[in-house]
Amino acid sequence: MDYFAQQLINGLVLGSIYGLIAIGYTMVYGIVGMINFAHGDIFMIGGFIALITFLILVSFGLTAIPLILLIVLLVSMAITALYGWTVERIAYRPLRHSFRLAPMLSAIGMSFVLTNYSQVSQGARVKPVPPIITGGYTLHEGPGGFVVQLSNIQIIVVITTVVLLALFTWLVSSTRLGRDMRACEQDQTMAALLGVDVDRTISMTFVIGAALAAVAGMMYLLYYGLVDFFMGFVAGIKAFTAAVLGGIGSLPGAMLGGLLIGLIETLWSAYFSVEYKDVAAFSILIVVLIFLPTGLLGRPEVEKV
Amino acid sequence: MQASRAPGVAFIFKKALISALVALVLFSLMIGVRTEPGPQGLLIYETRFGELAAMVATVFGGSIVVELLRQWWGPVGTVRVVPPQVTSALAVAGRWVAPVLLVFTFLVPVIFYNERYILDLGILVLTYVMLGWGLNVVVGLAGLLDLGYVAFYAVGAYSYALLATNFGLSFWVCLPLAGILAAFWGVLLGFPVLRLRGDYLAIVTLAFGEIIRLVIINWQSLTGGPNGVTGIPRPTMFGIPLSPGDDGLAALLGIEFSPTHRIVFLFYLILALALLTNWVTIRLRRLPIGRAWEALREDEVACRALGINTTTTKLTAFATGAMFGGFAGAFFATRQGFISPESFTFQESALVLAIVVLGGMGSQLGVALAALAMIGGFELFRGLDQYRMLVFGMAMVLLMIWRPRGLIGHRAPTVFLERNQAISSDLVKEGHG
Fold it and tell me: Which of A1, A186, A263, B296 has its CA 20 to 30 A from that of B327?
């Protein structure tokens, strides 16, 4: 039971990270209707920028950890958001009204560009950092000597995710930008006729998605203590799986899907085999889609003739 | 809009300046700073302001050049008037491209007999032409987006490799088996995705491709895991080995043995397999099932309304495409003599899909030309080493922006009404149908 509780905690933390990335996928899909294949790599870039900012700040002699974390968070969100904006501007905007496959292939190309760009500029080796946030709480000490622990970093990851989600939900439901985004999701032409700047709204969607991915990248760096240039691919596929599982286009669905994928992966590695954890996650995706073709919380697609 | 119609020097300059500023922020940390493991294993960093400045300057210059080119080219969407002579000349040339290309391909081993590199490259291009034609059945004809095509390639390769190394079966026995097994897996994948459409389909096929790769990596007792399968037998010419021994082809024909014989044989083998794929596809397009694929691509709802069984239509498309992938996989295994999971990554699926889309989704000639351009271009940049994938990714983005519908963008339905027919109203009266 203790072992299960510990895995549950680990799974929720991993799921939070997936959920943050999945929101970027689901938002872009909801508005533009394309799979942003480069989003996983945006997450990776976010991790790298957090790492570099952290190194620079430490070498300048800054020691207050909360201040460092805050600056790292803001810098990596800002620069990664600009990456998201640039990617949209270069690779997707010219193909906005093209046929369906074109932006997707362009996105796959962009994903190759970003992966190899960071490999060329930062090297292929894994970049480790020493643990930045240490310590934690012992929740329960079992009779067999097994200890259920909740580390500080896990608390930080979960709290950051919850705060960001609250902020984001508020943004979508009650600001001008959120209203524009929902309008564009329903009908771009009509939204444009009613004075919504569609291009700007779509750009902002990419910017927000990239900023959330940057937070996920930073959390990944803090939690696992390493980044490498190839981490975006696997994390991206898993997050996209999460978005599809939750019902693509649905924001609570993305978070739910992220948590589910995180839990499945952790529990499977704990009780069955570590090697087949990704196989388990993908198989469950396929099984869910057989029975619920639009995901858990997705709206059924209306077929128009 | 007036400003962008006739932009002056100031406008171009301002635009380039903004691009350079964005580039400065983007590259500041990723290029301006490089992290390296230090002496104690901790990361240290060094600054590279020279490279950063060079990159920003490149973006500035590039932005000006792009803007000037755009002005010279004129606004997008203008209809360029092409003289009719040029159009008709192009049409004549277009009709001759395919036969000339085919004859040239047949002659490649003769012309370049002593150029091992060109022959190897030719085999590689033909392998991708075959994969492209195979995937074209699924994506181009049936309109089902498949991001995990490499899974069937892997199934074919591993089927041949394992059957040949464990049971000593020959290539010619294994080739159909590899195709059948791959088709079987295609049907297996087809079942869950029958109800899915569009992007859900894409992600499930992608997941399927990853599952196959992960199982191959982890099922070490069967597949050898990341080490792969070694010592896969070379193909024989229907039982006659292409070896220097007494029973070899060279000895039988009484000519001197040369290792090039095997390369030439492999070249014609893959050419035959690719042409078989092409021929079967062209024939299938004229059968009811091929018509059903194309109808499915155009409109699934209308398809159902017309009584086409979408289940079998989708499954046959998956199975046919997968079978050709399996053939190509078996060929790949016998050519390499060694296979490992590294050859079957998502990157391969993306490459084949890019070939199909660039080829114009459904055009057989287009796919062949796209494969030639992509693989040939990929080889040209072999010297660039780690920059190669970077250039490849950029090329993919630029090609999509330049020609979103592919190099040869035609997707005319095979059947259409010759002329509009006016039907008299008394024929459609109630009760007359």
Answer: B296
B258: distance to nearest CA of chain A, Å?
Answer: 41
Phi, psi dihedral angles at A141 (to 5 degrees): -115, 115
In our burial notation (b when 16+ CB lie closer than 10 A, e otherwise), range B247-271 reads ebbbbeeeeebeeebbbbbbbbbbb
Task: Pick the closest to residue A225 from A292, A299, A127 (CA basis).
Answer: A127
Domain boundary assignment for chain B: 9-73, 110-352
Mean pLDDT (whole number) for B336-364: 87
What is the ipTM metric for this complex? 0.85
Q: Do A244 and B214 touch (CB under 8 A)?
A: no
> If we measure between CA atoms, which residue out of A48, A90, A94 comes closest to residue B394?
A90
Residue A217 lies in a domain: yes
What's the total number of domains in chain A?
1
Judged against a pLDDT cut of 50, whether residue B3 lies above it is answered with no
Are the beta carbons of B218 and A305 separated by less than 8 Å? no
Beta bridge pairs of residue A148: A140
Å between B214 CA and nearest CA of chain A: 7
Residues spanned by the domain of A125 = 16-232
Please check whether residue B295 is in contact with residue B306, taking contact to mean a CB–CB distance below 8 angstroms.
yes
Q: Where are the beta strands (DSSP E) in A68-181?
A: 127-128, 136-141, 147-151
Let me know: does B361 contact A101? Beta carbons within 8 Å: yes
Percent of chain B with pLDDT over 90: 24
> Considering the domain boundaries, does residue A253 fall inside one?
no
Confidence at residue B429, expressed as pLDDT on a 0 to 100 scale: 53
The set of residues, in sequence order, having a beta carbon less than 8 Å from that of B209 and lying 6+ positions away, is: B147, B148, B149, B150, B151, B344, B346, B349
Are A113 and B354 inside 8 Å of each other by CB? Answer: no
Residues of A in contact with B390 (CB under 8 A): 112-113, 116-117, 120
Query: What are B246-301's pLDDT values in tens digits?
Result: 777 777 777 777 778 888 889 999 999 999 999 999 999 889 999 999 888 888 88
Contact in structure between B181 and B158 (CB atoms under 8 Å):
no
Residue among A30, A32, A36 nearest A253 (CA): A30
The mean of the pLDDT values for chain B is 83
> Encoding tokens for residue B94?
């277009």
Q: Which CATH architecture has domain B110-352?
A: Orthogonal Bundle (1.10)
Whether residue B28 and residue A79 make contact (CB cut-off 8 A), yes or no, is yes
Nearest chain A Cα distance for residue B105, angstroms: 29
